[in-house]
């Protein structure tokens, strides 16, 4: 049973940084694409970043608006994926969710969608 627990959110001023963590269990972590989505109030969930399962040849993919500011990484020994968020903007305010996908990389990136289930998420609030 796939379980993910997100943490690291909080309240930060614009320009600040946060590091989100996602601890995974119940599945072979190294076999899964890991990704972050976010959902702002009144909006649909939005893809943020993804990292491939192959650490020997890592691929990453980002939402255009976070490129250069956010970095996704994974530690397969700790079954954990991270999202380092720098230069945060008020538009980044949302609940951030971690997901684990068994889909092929090219298929996942082509659609960048996730139908659930969702974890509890972690709230990120950026004040102006």
Task: Report on this structure.
By secondary structure, the protein is mainly beta. Helix content is 5%, strand content 46%. Strand 7 and strand 8 form a beta hairpin. The mean pLDDT is 95.
For the sheet with most strands, the description reads: 6 strands, mixed
- Strand coverage percent: over 45%
Alpha-carbon Rg, integer: 14 Å
**Contiguous runs where pLDDT drops below 50 for at least 5 residues:** none
What's the number of extended β-strand segments?
Answer: 10
What form results from the Cα inertia axes? globular
The ordered H/E elements are EEEEEEEEEHE
Helix content: under 10%
Secondary structure tally, helices:
1
What is the strand and helix layout of this fold?
Layout: E1 3-7, E2 10-13, E3 18-25, E4 33-39, E5 46-51, E6 60-62, E7 70-75, E8 80-85, E9 94-101, H1 105-111, E10 122-127
Parallel strand pairs: 2-10
Antiparallel strand pairs: 1-3, 3-8, 4-5, 4-9, 5-6, 7-8, 9-10
Summarize this, please?
The protein is mainly β. It has one helix and ten strands.
Give the tags.
128 residues; mainly beta
